[in-house]
Specification:
- The structure holds 2 protein chains of 2 kinds.
- Chain A has 11 helices and 4 strands.
- Chain A is mostly helical.
- By secondary structure, chain B is mainly alpha-helical.
- Chain B has 2 domains: 59 residues, no CATH class; 308 residues, Orthogonal Bundle (ABC transporter involved in vitamin B12 uptake, BtuC), CATH 1.10.3470.
- Chain B is 68% helix and 3% strand.
- In chain B, β1 and β2 form a beta hairpin.
- The chains are: A mainly alpha, B mainly alpha.
- The interface between A and B is large, with 64 and 57 residues.
């Protein structure tokens, strides 16, 4: 195993991991607050990838070429519209099921993810789409005296910076604002929170909005990095992000990021050193094994069933 | 009156903003084409749906909810008995009147009935959401294909082999996941289903990978349904002295499949009334209460898992036999979701409902070819709407109730 390849795979894995972490936040927050796996979250991420390409095309048609301006506008617009998607889904499909059986919202979520996938397929066509390269170039960092380099592209740098920034903002919101306090209260005990005057329906809606916004950030950044996507990407990425959320301990925000990073690294090493054909099998097996042997994850608390 | 339209107008505006980018600006390379119609139509539809919902709510409010319907809408025993004799007979005669195309549709419909019956045991009766049911279906189909390729097995040997392989796999998967609650179980089974498909797809030297594998058609007492038999054999049509028709093979598969479906059906209806079936439903309703009453939740859940898996495996063997070819694209997550949609639309736990839903979902798209693009979209919408308005399904399951006999 060459150290330069190892270092390069570490960089790639960390970048991949931050995107998993960003999407995992949506799973972990929704699970924390209403105890439900939002199966359609992966499709929200897919929608945001399409929105990125569409907004880029719109800006290009106005003849705007400034890269920083384009990036900021596309990021903002995609976050807004994707968050609106998240809010809308919660409002029409999950809120009416607040007090039903455990199975019902899960089935609705599967239905919604079929709807979103096929809505996008019918509107945009089944072929894979691409976006133009916005940021080129990379940093080359020498790691030993033989002239071996690792390359960190500017897009990769951007991904890590934006992800860290948004994590910081999110942590600030959750721990320092009244909104965050309301979120945490609702998470601990929804009935008690509503007795104390918190509009829990609104809080839950906001959690969906935050989750969708984080997925949108991941959608924009990953699309910029890979340049192509299709209407299928939500499924596999969604499951991997869910794996990350479970790995870190579902319900925990730092856990989601940690889980994302570990999964990203593990997948990148597996693809690089073992077999890249089976990297999805590896991720899914990891998911199954974690759920069987350590369902509370790394940073989560074990659940106790009360009678 | 004003409030009557304001909310729907807001909804319409929202839907317009929501759908304008995705359905209005269609990507074409790095540029886009403006399609202004779809978002407007969607917004209009949202407006009318919202108005309709408000109307329904207003109409229902004065009289409160409609009085709960008497659940004693019993079917007359004679009607029931005639139906149980007539319907299977009709089913047996059906293939002789169908053309080749509809014959394959009918076989597919029956396979889905079988799969839905299997999944219904796991999801509907035992209440465990299995999102990887397609794994067992794949194991059955590939059990046949691989058994034929490497062991020289025929259809009749593959049928028990596929069934027991799937049941065994169901048990192996069942053991570790029993401790989990609803959604974790769903995710583990989903991951498991994907693992099976990815292995089938990537292990090219063993399974042929994405190219798939060819499967021979079944034989009747060693008679083949091809135009010319292999060395030393007599084909079916020469043996009977009738003209060759490629339909014979399909009619034959249909008839065996129909008998298997009937057998499964009687097994499942009987099980529902036996202690095992009652324990499934009881565990679904309250696991803690059941365990404290001494029901062994491990064996009960495992039996549901294994039985469901076995039925799925049998479905897979028939699928391989009727297609004459298997490849991994037939076993994606979408297939699991489709079978789940059938079970949900038919009413979780209701056997007649599930059968009707399976037939409708396979036959309707064939009738409405023009709308085949919208098929999955409509399934998804139907799943959401069902969960919101009729969570117990279109045909509601009658729960066992003890009644005092009147006079």
């Amino acid at each position: 195993m060459e150290p330069s390849i190892l270092a390069q795979q570490t960089v790639n894995g960390l970048v991949l991991g931050t995107s998993y972490g960003l999407i995992a936040i949506g799973y972990t927050m929704v699970y924390g607050i209403i105890g439900m796996i939002n199966f359609a979250h992966g499709e929200i991420y897919m929608v945001s990838a399409y929105l990125t390409a569409i907004f880029l095309a719109v800006l290009a048609s106005f003849g705007i070429t400034s890269v920083p301006f384009t990036l900021v506008v596309v990021l903002a617009a995609t976050i807004c519209v994707t968050a609106l998607h998240g809010w809308f889904l919660e409002r029409i499909a999950y809120r009416p099921l607040r007090n039903s059986t455990r199975l019902a919202p899960l089935i609705t979520a599967i239905g919604l993810s079929l709807v979103l996938q096929n809505y996008v397929r019918l509107s945009q066509g089944a072929r894979s789409q691409g976006i133009p390269t916005l940021l080129q170039g990379s940093f080359a960092i020498p790691i030993d005296s033989h002239g071996n380099l690792i390359r960190i592209t500017h897009v990769q740098t951007l991904i890590v910076i934006v992800a860290l920034l948004s994590m910081a903002v999110l942590t600030f919101i959750m721990h320092r604002t009244s909104l965050g306090r309301a979120c945490r209260a609702t998470e601990q005990d929804r009935i008690m929170a509503s007795l104390l005057g918190i509009d829990t329906d609104r809080v839950i809606a906001i959690v969906f909005i935050i989750g969708a916004a984080m997925a949108a950030i991941a959608g924009v950044l990953v699309s910029l990095n890979y340049g192509s996507f299709d209407f299928h990407i939500g499924f596999v990425t969604g499951i991997k992000a869910f794996t990350a959320a479970v790995l870190g301990g579902i319900g925990s925000l730092p856990g989601a990021m940690l889980g994302g990073l570990i999964l990203g690294l593990a997948e990148s090493f597996f693809a690089g050193f073992v077999n890249s054909d089976y990297k999805d099998v590896f991720a899914f097996s990891l998911l199954v094994l974690i759920l069987i042997f350590r369902p509370s994850g790394l940073l989560g608390q074990p659940q106790i069933t009360k009678v | 009156m004003g409030a009557f339209f304001i909310q729907p107008l807001i909804t319409a505006a929202l839907v317009l903003v929501l759908t304008a980018p995705i359905s209005g600006l269609v990507l074409d390379g790095y540029r886009f084409d403006l399609h202004w119609q779809p978002p407007l139509w969607l917004a209009l539809a949202a407006f009318f749906i919202h108005v309709g919902l408000i109307l329904i709510r207003r109409l229902l409010r004065p009289g409160q909810k409609a009085p709960p319907q008497q659940n004693s809408r019993q079917i007359h025993p004679t009607v029931l008995r005639t139906a149980t004799i007539l319907l299977p007979l009709l089913g047996l005669l059906l293939p002789f009147f169908l053309g080749k195309y509809w014959l394959t549709v009918a076989i597919l419909a029956l396979i889905y009935v079988l799969l839905a019956l299997g999944l219904n045991i796991v999801v509907g009766l035992a209440g465990m959401l299995d999102l990887g049911f397609v794994a067992f279906y794949a194991v059955g189909a590939y059990g046949y294909a691989l058994g034929q390729e490497y062991l020289g097995l025929g259809f009749w040997a593959a049928l028990p082999l596929g069934a027991s392989l799937a049941a065994g796999l169901g048990m192996i998967l069942g053991f570790p996941v029993l401790r989990m609650h609803g959604d974790y179980l769903a995710i583990v089974t989903l991951g498991f289903g994907e693992i099976i498909r990815l292995i089938l797809n990537n292990w090219v030297s063993f399974t042929g990978g994405p190219n798939g594998m060819r499967v021979d058609s079944p034989t009747l007492l060693g008679l083949e349904f091809s135009r010319r038999a292999k060395e030393g054999n007599v084909p079916f049509h020469e043996f009977l002295g009738i003209d060759y028709s490629s339909n014979h093979r399909h009619i034959f598969i249909y008839l065996i499949l129909f008998l298997v479906v009937l057998a499964t059906l009687s097994l499942v209806t009987r099980l529902k009334h036996m202690p095992l079936g009652r324990s499934w439903e009881a565990l679904r309703e309250d696991e803690i209460a059941c365990r404290s009453l001494g029901i062994n939740h491990v064996t009960v859940k495992l039996s549901a898992f294994a039985l469901g898996a076995m039925i799925g495996g049998i479905g897979g063997v028939f699928f391989a036999a009727s297609q004459g070819f298997v490849n991994p694209t037939s076993f994606t997550f979408f297939e699991s979701a489709l079978i789940l949609a059938i079970v949900v639309l038919g009413g979780l736990g209701s056997i007649p409902g599930v059968i009707i839903a399976a037939i409708v979902i396979t036959v309707l798209p064939e009738l409405l070819r023009d709308f085949s693009d919208y098929r999955v979209l409509v399934f998804g919408l139907a799943m959401v709407c069902m969960m919101i308005w009729r969570p117990k399904g279109l045909v509601q399951n009658r729960r066992p109730v003890f009644q005092r006999r009147s006079a």
